Amino acid sequence: AKRLSWFDLAAVSDKKPSSSQALTDWLGSCTTYREYLDVLDRLFRPKVWCYNFFPFMNTIDYNGNVTGLNVRLEEFYRYLILFRDKINSPYDPVINPYFWNYTMASEQKYVDSSGKTIWHRPAPTVGIIRFLVFNSLAFGAKGTVYYMYGTQYTNVTSGAHSVFGEAPLSCEITGTGMDATVTFRKSGIWNAIKTVNSEVVAWKRVFINTKVLECFTKGRPVEGLEPLPDNYECLTSLQTGGPGVIVSHLMKISDTSDSVSEVNHYLVLVNLDYEKKQAVRASFKNGYGASFIQTLSPTSIPQTTSTHSVVINPAGTATLDPGGIAVISWIARQ
After folding, report:
1. Which of 14, 119, 196, 220 has the most C-beta neighbours closer than 10 Å?
2. Rounded CA gap, 275 and 56, in Å?
3. Does residue 165 contact residue 111 with C-beta atoms inside 8 Å?
4. What are the Cα distances from residue 238, in Å, to 218, 244, 279, 318?
5. Neighbouring residues of 34: CB distance < 8 A, sequence distance ≥ 6
6. Helix, strand, or coil here: 131?
7. How far apart are CA 129 and CA 145, in angstroms?
8. What are the distances in angstroms from CA 17 to CA 8, 64, 126, 297?
């Protein structure tokens, strides 16, 4: 049967929409976004689900001036839960879908005909980029799309229009015709993305070929997620500072040389603070052999294999970078 390989969707609020007509315009006869995804799935069976939602938006006063930052965490995690559940639904093995989402990578605002700012998306920091990317991976995403990677320029100066600010990459063109010279310039956002991408590569053992079993929150309540249960799996306790962490339980099965399957378990702890580091402390049950693991520096990773990029951290503590992660690992044999 024919099917689409890629579906790129808007994230539409199905919770307290501004009007029933607004919901109908986006979702048709579907009453919820989850039902909408189910209908699209039955019709097209896409291999890759992708959606666009940026939770970081500046708050604006009556005159269009920036007054602060609004982080729409409730909606951010609602969509991660929806798409995690979608790819974990029973599927024909031939399809085996996965999902990507977008990561904010540029500054953008929208102004009205008088030039007053209506909404404003800030230029992301390295902490914001980490927060978006590692939360997505913790919920099962297998990729991200950076928007926008190149700075856009517009000649529009009247009427309502978008104004684009700093992006990872910009170019300057001098001269004309065959004598034109193109100069590419990398911004601070480029360096932030490069940093986060290198961290993702260092942790790839944890995220490649793994399945998300459960997600919890420890510390700040997050709608749609249960608090981490006491004595969960290998843990006897988990203590956090600051706002807390998201806890995602991932599993990967691999066959050993003696025909016994090893089940690799990972608890990925994602820092809910995108501005500050956060320390976490864990104690473990006997018999699991659980511990924190840490990444090696790129120069220490063996060139012959990509599976030894992490090593045991014998301490029961870890420090998470702003928006970053710590990982607890153990192995079960079956």
Report:
1. 196
2. 13
3. no
4. 8, 10, 11, 11
5. 14, 82, 85
6. helix
7. 12
8. 21, 24, 32, 47
Q: Tokens 């856009």: give the residue.
A: 152
Q: What are phi and psi of 222, to 5 degrees?
A: -130, 120
Digits of tens for pLDDT over the chain (334 positions)? 566 687 788 777 655 445 555 566 777 788 888 888 888 888 888 889 999 889 999 999 999 899 999 999 999 999 999 999 998 887 766 678 889 999 999 988 888 888 899 999 999 999 999 999 999 999 999 999 998 877 666 666 778 888 888 888 887 888 888 888 888 888 899 999 999 999 999 999 899 999 999 999 999 999 889 999 999 999 999 999 889 999 999 999 876 566 667 889 999 999 999 999 999 999 999 989 999 998 865 444 444 444 445 666 667 899 999 999 999 999 986 6
Q: Are 167 and 180 in contact (CB under 8 A)?
A: no
Query: Within its chain, how far is the Cα of 92 from the centroid?
Result: 26
312 Cβ partners below 8 Å, 6+ apart?
A: 291, 292, 293
pTM, full prediction = 0.88
**CA max distance for the chain:** 72
Q: How far apart are CA 262 and CA 273, in angstroms?
A: 34
